[in-house]
Amino acid sequence: MKYLLHDIRHNPMLWLLFFVPVVFLAEALKPGAYTLLFVLSVLAIVPLAALLSHATESVAAKTGDAVGGLLNATLGNLTELVIALTALRAGQYMLVKASIAGAIVTNTLFMLGASFLLGGLKHHTQEFNKVGARLQAGLLFLATVALLVPSAIAKADSGPAAAFANELSLGLAVLLIVAYGLGLVFSLKTHRELFASAEAGEAGESPWPVAVALATLAGVTVLVALVSEVFVESVQEAAKTFGMTPAFVGFIIVALVGGAAEMASAFSGARKNRLDLSVGIALGSASQIALFVAPVLVLLSYVIGPSPMSLDFWPGAVVMMLIGTLTAALVTTSGRSAWFVGVLTLMVYLTFAMSLYLLPPGLR
Amino acid sequence: MKYLLHDIRHNPMLWLLFFVPVVFLAEALKPGAYTLLFVLSVLAIVPLAALLSHATESVAAKTGDAVGGLLNATLGNLTELVIALTALRAGQYMLVKASIAGAIVTNTLFMLGASFLLGGLKHHTQEFNKVGARLQAGLLFLATVALLVPSAIAKADSGPAAAFANELSLGLAVLLIVAYGLGLVFSLKTHRELFASAEAGEAGESPWPVAVALATLAGVTVLVALVSEVFVESVQEAAKTFGMTPAFVGFIIVALVGGAAEMASAFSGARKNRLDLSVGIALGSASQIALFVAPVLVLLSYVIGPSPMSLDFWPGAVVMMLIGTLTAALVTTSGRSAWFVGVLTLMVYLTFAMSLYLLPPGLR
Amino acid sequence: MKYLLHDIRHNPMLWLLFFVPVVFLAEALKPGAYTLLFVLSVLAIVPLAALLSHATESVAAKTGDAVGGLLNATLGNLTELVIALTALRAGQYMLVKASIAGAIVTNTLFMLGASFLLGGLKHHTQEFNKVGARLQAGLLFLATVALLVPSAIAKADSGPAAAFANELSLGLAVLLIVAYGLGLVFSLKTHRELFASAEAGEAGESPWPVAVALATLAGVTVLVALVSEVFVESVQEAAKTFGMTPAFVGFIIVALVGGAAEMASAFSGARKNRLDLSVGIALGSASQIALFVAPVLVLLSYVIGPSPMSLDFWPGAVVMMLIGTLTAALVTTSGRSAWFVGVLTLMVYLTFAMSLYLLPPGLR
């Protein structure tokens, strides 16, 4: 507990932990105040995500390179996974798919663009390891393409039979998870040296003892799950109040909320002129969503969902994911960055956000 | 006047100025001879564009780097802008959109490809600054993507409400112009050195005194506007005579005519083994169309057009713009060129031209 | 004959020649046993393709660089061409188009990916000449784009008139062949040095005398044509038995069978840490399909086909070809490779294969 208090004192984001009890209180007292519950649950998830991230890193730091890397890689997107699982159990597949697509786009456009902008405002031009960046951008591109195959082929041929989409998604989920496993062997074992810098630097804060970290990991995961429940229940009604489409909520809000902790690390890396770190977090996290979170959700939909979920995204999401990964590949290929590259990358993100916000509900 | 005469003596393209009075005469005498008027107006716009370009550069050379760069960047596509404004006032939105899309494709495929080919016929292989080229290709890609968001998302979701497209285009136009302004700060102020070579070399001819240049700028802009009026009025009927679709006219003819002066500079740079200059003109001009000309036309459509114009392009144009910018990114990424790269780039352009020419009118 | 016997002794793939007489025997005895005939004809084509490849190289080795290169470039995909011609004569245009698309995708994803994987399992990281690879990837991208223009523009505009597609395809075929001819001038004459390494190494086995090679070339081509006839006749019925769609057969089976010989060379190059060779074969062969085989088939459809064949591919094939060439461009841009890059490239190929296998017949 003293570790927690120490952290809270030094990290203003953790002050938001105050909202965790508030959200449960509010739900008990006013179960119908959806807008309030939505805002409170968003405010409560952000610090919990930061705690999860710190706890994961603390365990990872203690257990040595291989197991630690595995933990970091598997639990790095735990917040996104728990939120998506809650939505999955509630049968809100549109929200689940939007949050998968949104997490990829947010990582490749918002996180990368804001890192370039924040870093570029402080440093004239920044260099980063282009060999590593190209490799990661290439992996991300391939992962995204594999994820999009059912949508691309089915949509292109105007209207798939639902059975086909489910069968294909199931097969694909297995393939993606195999590729993810091989990717862990690659990045943690056979070619560890290519990814070294990114992992070493991620632990910005002092690590906790293992017992504290493990207890925090377990406890906070439960809290995230409970808050996510409030979030998923209230989001639909609240979105209506704010005039947001479900696509906008999943794509923008969930992705920003779930990724808040990683963003803090990526931005601080960029300010310290360690763009390798920022690029590694942004591209690595996006790859993990495509190769691990998405297929796990498909497989779990057979167990905990009301019906099987396919990987068949709506066409706008396909376009946005492809553009996001192509943009990431293009802006990282030169190994150099300046603030305006960040501005333009963010602008593409803003145009997506604007389109989703304005999209009439009929078009989804 | 003596400067003008001196230039005319040394630049055969200016001999076409002869057609400027001819086109007005012809319109007064034979207002219904659309095919004749169309041909004459095309012949008259080419030398006027060259004069505009020279006058802009002369003013720019005298006013110092920052203001001069601003002028060059803003007035570099003045001819395209004036033609498009005339079409906008006449409510010919198809022609306006086709000329925006065509200018981007012509700059990235025709101007770049012909520069590579012409340079490559004289020099075995040519090298150019790949860092600058990659940066510019990256900016162009992001600018094009932002421009295409309404089309991509709306079309992908099969049929947008017109209101949505207009709202989104308006918001996007504001975003694009903000990005354009920030881009000027970037290229003229904070990171001037990255763009230095391209600007320095653009003034191939000897500059005029400022007074002459300003007077020419004003006078020639008026002339371009007047000739454009004839052009826009006659183009529809003339196109029918030649068996051309409106898409072909806007995409190919307007873009080639409007960009003639820049092409002359780019090609002469390539022959002199200064491909940096050619690549800079081609990519810079295409970016400017996407970030400045297109949004200005959207905003002005609220003032001078019969109804608001959206940035909703027809699908073929979207595909062609994306392929154009992707091609530009790919062929400039290595920083080396040889004649066959130019041949293939031109071939892609030719296939687009051929498709547009053959496209049955029903498909637009 | 003794050369042939010597080769057979040293190359286990040639033991499959045993199936050549077997397939003719089987067809004479059991003309209705489609599944058997299909399997036998596949087994018979593989060694014939290897012989064709060796004979072409032997002639090429004797006739000097320019003519030899021309031969290699023209006859390198002779097997694919003969199979496609047989399908063309039978009016099976779906099979022809699927085999064109499949050959491009198989070369860029399967051949490249498997080379990276096989090479990477033996060597920690492999380097290859990135200048040459980028040039070839750029050429391939432009060739593929040109090939796809009719599909992209026509499909994007929802349903073309058939006449338009045929007219455009004819014009395009002429353009592509002109580009192919210019490409030969480029790679064999003006810029020979850029492609040198790939050609020099292709002759892995000892060359035959010219007379033997020419006789083999003629004889084996006839045999391939005869076996192809059996293959094309039996493939439809056999596919039904195996539950395969015609798209799957053309895209996957024909492409793998036709490219078996080239794959053997590419893989052996990768194992010997000569990735330049593997990348050259994979990208060069894919370019040749787009620039030479496809347009030749369109032109010949006017002579030997029941009706003109257009280059209008079904949308799924367009997506797959574009992704294949983009992937090839991305994974070769860094000039370095490791086994996991191969895994992910193969995974994209597997997802395509899986989709085509599962695709309900109604969606084609």
Question: What this model shows, in words?
Answer:
The structure is a homotrimer of 364-residue chains. Chain A is mostly helical and 364 residues long. Helix content of chain A is 80%, strand content 1%. In chain A, helix 5 (78-89) crosses helix 10 (210-242), helix 6 runs antiparallel to helix 13 (275-301) and helix 6 runs parallel beside helix 14 (315-332). The A-B interface holds A 124-125, 314-316, 318-320, 323, 326-327, 330-331, 333-334, 336, 338-341, 343-345, 347-348, 350-352, 354-355, 358-360, 362-364 and B 131, 134-135, 137-139, 141-143, 145-146, 149-150, 152-154, 156-161, 163-164, 167-168, 171-172, 175-176, 179, 182-183, 186-187, 190-191, 194, 329, 333.
Q: Given the helix and strand composition of chain A, which structural class is it?
A: mainly alpha
Question: What is the number of helical segments of chain A per DSSP (H or I, 4+ residues)?
Answer: 15
Give the spatial strand order of the biggest sheet of chain A.
Answer: 1-2
Radius of gyration of chain A: 20 Å
- Overall geometry of chain A comes to globular
* Biggest sheet character of chain A: 2 strands, antiparallel
Q: Please give the number of β-strands of chain A.
A: 2
Q: Terminal Cα separation of chain A, in Å?
A: 45 Å
Oligomer: homotrimer
Largest contact between protein chains?
A-B, 36 and 40 residues
